[in-house]
Amino acid sequence: MKTMNEINNSFVGMQHPVINDIQNNEPRPKREVMTLRIYIRTFWMDYLVMVILGIIGIVVNGLRPIPNRVFPVYFRDGEIVNPEFGYSFGINIIPTWLSGLLAFIIPFVFIMLMQIRVRSFNDVNTATMGLLFSIISGAVFQVLIKWLIGGLRPHFFSVCKPSINPASVGTGKGFDGLMFDRSICTGDEKEINFALQSMPSGHATAAFASLVYCSLYLNGKLKVFANYRPQYWKFVLFYAPLLGAVLIASSLTIDHYHHWYDILAGSIIGIMFAVGSYRFQYASVWDFRFNHIPLPRIEADYGFDYHLDQLQESMSGSKKGGWKNGHIHGAPFDATATLSVLPTSAQMRGELNLE
């Protein structure tokens, strides 16, 4: 009867010949040394698209909202119909500029701190560009929705300053003439435009696009959810950026800039772009064996082949778990190529004489 260590060693021995055969069929091209010229040649299109999207976002954000929103103000008895739109107009607890700055700075600090162990320009570039992809794409996405759909902010009536009284009810549009549009507003036009663009929340989108991305990056580098039980501080650190995102987004209900459903919509958009951007840049989102490895761009035609030899070429921020010695087995989630070189459960039972 073979011991478990002998069986484990035989597993590793089975993997490398198959992997080498695959590699020999299509030899990897010689790697180019990264220079400024090669970097610009490789990534100039990405930066150009980011600039274009940034310009689109800035321009659209300054445009007059497309929909002509109608809303009731009073019932016939003089009661206010929607008091949730009657809050006072004040100052953001977290201004827009600060929200955008935090969205970039917090994850970037963690990316740079991780280089104490990883020490990889490729990882810094991959992680930072992914962060920018998430923030910029999410921002343009939500700005277009605000412009084309929008909605009334909680402080809408405060900036609209409608020139109407209960006696004028019945002269509007819709059933019983209760509905009016922005033509009854007497406030500042820019403030009215802003107050008509409530859904989704831009703060929530930026917070979740960046800080969910940050949590995914920390998970990939520190192996929070992996094949071993890490120290508790890693678990806490993984959720800390998520707490920050929730606090930033939720503050908008205190200063009456957004409704809870605006925040929920913005959060979903941010999460969507955070997960998409991370997977766009890294070999996996949750597969602990590969989710710290940047996907190739210079050798994009060759691609990433998801075999365990790759673990020797890209350093994780953690030394635990075994992905540096080739003893990791199994294929959770989307990295399944190594399953073909592993024995089945029936073969394992046969090796152990359990049948």
Automatic annotation (TrEMBL):
Origin superkingdom: Eukaryota
Keyword Membrane: yes
Keyword Metal-binding among record annotations: no
Pfam families per the UniProt record, alphabetical: PAP2 (PF01569)
Main location group: membrane
Domain Phosphatidic acid phosphatase type 2/haloperoxidase stretches: 126-278
Places the protein is found: Membrane
An individual GO BP term: phospholipid metabolic process
InterPro entries in the record: PAP-like (IPR043216), PAP2/HPO (IPR000326), PAP2/HPO_sf (IPR036938)
SMART domains linked: acidPPc (SM00014)
Family membership noted in the UniProt record: Belongs to the PA-phosphatase related phosphoesterase family.
Full protein name: Phosphatidic acid phosphatase type 2/haloperoxidase domain-containing protein
Species, as recorded: Adineta steineri
